[in-house]
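Exam revision sheet. Question 4 asks you to relate a sequence to its structure. Input first:
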Amino acid sequence: MRIDTKKGILESDWHYLTQWKERVFPEEGRSKEWTPVSWHSIAYSEANDPIGHIGFDRFEVLIDAVPHLVIGIGGVVVRPEYQGQGIPALLFNEVHDQARKHLGAGVFTLFCPSRLVTYYEKHGYQRYPGAVYLLQQGEKVLSTFEFMHHGDLAAVGKVVLQSEPW
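Answer key, structure tokens:
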């Protein structure tokens, strides 16, 4: 297995990773507007097939009206036949290293349904305790997802995204 990090992802790789997306991505998120990310860490099998993915990019969030740069993570997926082999841990390590190098921010954030909080906690993420607002259909709304972070983020305060979630 190898992991590559690059800008962009081939449509064929994305389709191969998500062809069963009804089971991959939470139902709660299918009706939401999401901001696409530019960077992708992809795990490839020995046969050079994509088997895991994490997308990421740099975003600005406001915490109590003070701007903070964060790395937003999205599109966390591992093909079913490769699950349980520690691939997400390898991908998270790669993303954390590459994002610091290329994007210059050390706080990582993601959105997830409540049922996935313990999964992301296993990868070092913490639930943010404050209110989080994001754009949906051009309006700022209270997030129905948990906002998780890895790295130092203000302990509490109102978070306002300037975009849709990632």
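Marking note for examiners. The first helix runs from residue 11 to 18.
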